[in-house]
Amino acid sequence: MSTIPALLLVGAVIAQAALPRRRVPIVVLAAALAVLEAGLSGRASARQIVGAVPWDVLILLVALGVVSELFRASRVFERVAVLISARGGANPARLVLIGAVVMYAASGLVNNLTAILLVLPVLLVLLRQVGTSQRHLSWTLGVILVACNLGGAATPIGDFPAILLLGAGAMEFNDYLLRALPLTLAALVLFLALVALVVRPARDLRTSPVTERITVAVVRALHRNLRIEPRVFVPSAIGLVAMLLAWAFVPTRLLPPELVAWLGVPLVALATGRAGLRAVRSAVDPEATLFLFALFVLVGAVQQTGMFDALAAELLALPLPPRAQLVVFALAAGILTGVFSAGPSMAALLVVAGGLTRAVEPDVVYVALALSVCAGSSLFLTAATAGPLAQGMIERAQLTAADGEPIRFAFFDFLRTGLVAFCVIEGVAIAWCLVAGG
Amino acid sequence: MPGADAFALVAGELGMLSAARLFVNEAEAAGGHGAIGDLKAALGSAFPVLDAVAGRALADDPVRAPSITPVVEALAGCTRVLFVGLEVDCVEPVARALAAQVPSATVGVILDMNLPHDEARVRANLEAVGERGVSLVPLTSFQRFSGHKSALVTAIYGTDGFRAAVCSSWVRIFGPDARTQFRSLLGWNLLGAPLNEYPRWLSETSASDFTELISGRSNAEARV
Predict the structure, then answer these.
(1) Which tens digits make up the pLDDT trace of B120-152?
(2) Which of B26, B124, B126 sits opposite A213 (nearest CB)?
(3) In a 3-state reduction of DSSP, which class is residue A314?
């Protein structure tokens, strides 16, 4: 068994984590070298490896990116965030919880980056008006990023790992939704309860009725003319509901999920006029698509060597009952995702998970994998899909604490939240393995 | 009480006077004159317009939303109007009134770059005003609005008749060339009396810069 493709995969994953700005050329070059090695060794041709790339997943990702962009253009989430903020008042303790619930709901429907881009500006206005501290901001932002990850894992269209499961045909839409939604919701409730009752991020903040009243008035005034765009929102909402119904009720052998998106999204884009055309241009991100393509090629090259099957066999050979083997796998998946981020980890681990399904029911394995990847994504700021974006937005906002000290949101500011979130979500994943894995 | 950062952002996105009126009105509703006094003490020296608006509210002579009638009258016949500095209590009603009178009229705003703001949010709010919206214009592109049916308008935050406190973008635009490129250069006096505090965030210019000074207080006092 050649170890070169595996070394190239691990090397590329480490290098892209260390040099995130150069991640695309690093992964593309490693993929090209892996294809070259496979060709020279006579194991597989470039055509075979590229042909095995899960194009259905890429179609789903691009199509859902267009839907996210259309919802952004419709201003619906921005409007909802403003309404909830205004109605919920400007209480710093409540802000954490409201922010988390809004982000969880938004991330289930649009990708995490779009959800953060829509909701965070409103939240930053609130934080600036009501006043914040380093501790309060670190926890508030941390909780929101974790809620974003949980929302993304709650539905099969929320984030890359779930989309990969749906697109690769590993799980049906309903099977995933019915299992992952309650589990992620349970993790969210547990996590928020811990934060609200034990951590109490707002305990060092003092506010007054005057401040709260001014804050609510400011949020309304700064978004006074922003309205939901019906010409964009109505066709997008109808299109998304129609696609959800098709994913939920039409058998995949008749209409596979990627074909539902492939048919639905161009129709919605045409129905929304100029906004639809702009959405198509903005959503097709060549860098992200190239990165994922190269990752799939790398994983495909390693798969040709039989290494993933060997890893799965090693896992199955552990002198443990199947549910304990699943726990080991889930823990490893969580930690690997924390270090290498969700995309590369999920692409490689899905193949190993396929081996485990010989001993444990497939849906149990895949949901445990999705939850563990979600836990790992929440462990470090660098692993969270929207982490670097949130970090950049906080830096640009130049918030200051009551004592005038500038507030930052960097790796170590997120770490405590990340550790608590990892333990809670991974705990739910392990409980799932133990209860359902028998 | 919200801090200086909080007020600066609101002033950057609404304008000094609009932000000050909002803060003072809400403080009064929540805590009466006591809360206005606290607000004035906390932020007045850093934000002179807020200080003036709070002072007037404490003297039971609150600063009300400016009357737009004299400005709309002064802009009669203009098809391009460029506001230098944002005051949403002025810009948005004027843009709506102009759109009703001259549907082809174009209204733009040059922001005050000294104040923090989220440009995307400001743009989204302004683009939703009336049928044509109000556009954000970069400082360097102000001449796009020039012409014999064009006007420059800026808010004046108090004047003694010789000197006028204006947003700092005005002094970067105003010059002999600007005077000849626009039909009218209107100064909209929103506060009347000069500021008590040092005009921080603002610039002082000569009242003679303007082809017309318009009072913002009421229709009766309209033309000075």
Answers:
(1) 899 999 999 988 899 999 998 999 999 999 999
(2) B26
(3) helix
